[in-house]
Design a protein that fits this description.
By secondary structure, the chain is mainly alpha-helical. The protein has one domain. Helices cover 56% and strands 7% of the residues. The chain contains 4 helices and 2 strands; from the N terminus they run αββααα. The chain has helices spanning 19-42, 71-86, 104-137, 148-169, and strands at 49-54, 60-65. It is elongated and about 60 Å long. The protein starts with 18 loop residues before the first helix and ends with a helix.
């Protein structure tokens, strides 16, 4: 039997969370819980059909059962849990720079912070979609603001770009 050896094994470091990372994790939890509480609070007022999809202009292009709104928090918790677990194993990430003993702690910290920021941003995105859908279902809006999703996606990509720049500067 042939045993495959990894090309290189990265050094593992136990890097404690910074205060900023803890605050971001708490904010992520608050945003997620707000989305759940908001949906539960509005549930009895929701009609049987609610917006289930939006086109590129933010217009509602499909209606579905109000139970479809429960899919958003379910996906959000799965993504958040996955990103939270992933943030604990930065030595397994792919990096834009070579990881050495000298830069490992800095690179791992930068990458973990990026994952934690993106987790918060994704939770905000899901809460926004949920809030918008509830508002439209209640007749308080006609859909999403056309630029909302592109802006949130630019924020996500911006986080990634900022991380890559910092990673190269800290190599």
């Amino acid at each position: 039997m042939v045993q495959l050896k990894p090309k290189h094994t990265r050094i593992k470091h136990d890097i404690p969370l910074t205060g900023q990372e803890r605050v971001l994790q708490v904010l992520t939890l608050i945003v997620f819980l707000w989305g759940i509480v908001y949906l539960v609070a509005q549930w009895t007022d929701l009609p049987a059909t609610v917006p289930a999809h939006y086109n590129g202009k933010g217009e509602i292009d499909r209606w579905g059962s109000k139970w479809e709104l429960a899919i958003l928090p379910a996906i959000a918790i799965i993504l958040s849990a996955g990103l939270s677990v992933l943030s604990r194993f930065p030595h397994l990430y792919n990096y834009p720079v070579t990881i050495t003993e000298e830069n490992a702690v800095k690179q791992y910290s930068l990458a973990r912070k990026m994952v934690i920021w993106m987790n918060l941003e994704i939770q905000v995105l899901f809460c926004y979609i949920e809030w918008t859908s509830v508002q439209a279902a209640l007749g308080k809006s006609e859909g999403m603001w056309m630029w909302s999703i592109p802006i949130l996606l630019v924020v996500l990509m911006g986080t990634l770009v900022v991380y890559i720049i910092r990673a190269f500067r800290s190599k």
